Amino acid sequence: MRDIILITTGSIRNNLKSKALTVVFVSITLMIVAGLALFFCLLLITPAMNDSVPDRTQLELYLSLIMYTTSLICSGINLNVFAFQSMTKEKSRGNIESLMATPLSPKEIWIGKSIAIFLPGYAISIISTLIILSAVNFFVIIPATGNFILPAPLLLISFLINPLLFLALLLFIVLFSLANNPDIAIAPSFLVGFGLMIGIPLGVATGVINLVSWSFTLWCLAGVIIFWAADFGLYRLLTKENIVLSSKGA
Question: Of the candidates 169, 158, 61, 70, which has an alpha carbon nearest to the alpha carbon of residue 118?
Answer without folding.
Answer: 169
